[in-house]
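Milestone M4 deliverable, item 7.
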Amino acid sequence: QVQLVESGGSLVQAGGSLRLSCAASGRSIIIYGMGWFRQAPGKEREFVATVSRSGFTYYTDSVKGRFTISRDNAKNTVYLQMNNLKPEDSAVYYCNFLKGNSREPFGSWGQGTQVTVSS
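Output delivered:
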């Protein structure tokens, strides 16, 4: 059974930093692109960042220069370093496997981790 467990979310003041982790089990991440997504109350889940199998990264415009996605294949874990956080970054953050070279997620979602940024 494939599972994704996100952690590291918290309440933080604007300008602060957090590091999110996504631990996968039941499937190796090594042959997949991986992505982080987020969902704020009343909004649809949106793409945040992706990291390809080879380590190429891509970000949504609103987080460029502030967030960094990385992967540790040996630990089967993906990370999201978030710096200079803004209130609009508040959301539940999720990770998932990606289809091919796309930004389209597939498979079940984990429980997510809550990030709340106070102004």
